[in-house]
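Per your request, structure below.
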């Protein structure tokens, strides 16, 4: 089965080590604790394409993270170039423009980790340029695993009003408040990824039959994602969980690959 993983991460090893240290202390052990080359082999043996999601934890990081992604994509044709930005960077508009011209198909924001207002007026020109370019914004706006000052549906709604035509993937289907994000799906180009949704791990809950039915009925809005490599179980487990939702042949084709192929213009 063809699979495109729209929620996979690429970070320099020193940054990844710090991310893993945080998870070790607060959440769960990392199953794929290995070098980037080893991680890349694991993922590329399982998927047709994958994103290079990253996010700038503080000002001054985004440009060199995007440069790191550029180098990774040059050596790995299966990678879909996806970068990040931060409104406290004076050169934000310039490096986003450079990334788009270099072929980046999307960007990632993480409301809890980056700790800035996603509806900050300084982001307006970036959202407009992304919309013009057909870029995709992957947005971790949910309050799981940790609430932050800018997480939640209220801040999400403000961002939508700023960027009404920007395609947005809501990471982790919006967590426990999925329905509150889904309410905007009729008016905005919203999509939802499955990363860490319904997995069999003590920190998470099984996906209810009601939500499974909702995904089956709206399969054109959901995309397979895993959160690789920052997961405490094997990557295949997420595939098995999504398949257990009984999406049907057409639903699986959409969720596992076709929606991503269309959204990222592959």
């Amino acid at each position: 089965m063809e699979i495109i993983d729209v929620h996979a991460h690429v970070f320099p090893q020193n940054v990844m080590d710090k991310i893993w240290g945080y998870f070790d202390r607060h959440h769960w052990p990392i199953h794929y604790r290995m070098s980037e080359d080893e991680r890349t082999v694991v993922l590329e043996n399982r998927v047709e394409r994958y994103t290079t999601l990253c996010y700038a934890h503080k000002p001054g990081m985004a440009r060199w993270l995007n440069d790191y992604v550029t180098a990774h994509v040059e050596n790995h044709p299966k990678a879909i170039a996806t970068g990040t930005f931060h409104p406290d960077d004076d050169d934000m508009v310039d490096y986003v423009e450079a990334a788009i011209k270099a072929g980046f198909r999307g960007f990632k924001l993480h409301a809890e980790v980056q700790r800035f207002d996603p509806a900050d007026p300084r982001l307006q020109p970036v959202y407009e340029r992304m919309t013009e370019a057909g870029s995709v914004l992957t947005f971790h706006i949910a309050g799981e695993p940790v609430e932050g000052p800018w997480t939640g549906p209220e801040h999400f709604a403000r961002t939508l009003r700023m960027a009404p035509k920007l395609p947005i993937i809501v990471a982790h289907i919006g967590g426990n408040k999925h329905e509150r994000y889904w309410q905007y799906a009729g008016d905005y180009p919203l999509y939802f990824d499955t990363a860490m949704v319904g997995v069999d791990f003590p920190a998470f809950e099984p996906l209810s039959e009601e939500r499974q039915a909702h995904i089956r009925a709206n399969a054109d809005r959901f995309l397979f994602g895993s959160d690789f490599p920052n997961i405490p179980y094997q990557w295949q487990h997420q595939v098995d969980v999504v398949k257990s939702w009984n999406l049907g042949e057409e639903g699986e084709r959409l969720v596992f690959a076709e929606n991503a192929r269309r959204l990222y213009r592959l």
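The mean pLDDT is 96.

Regards,
D.
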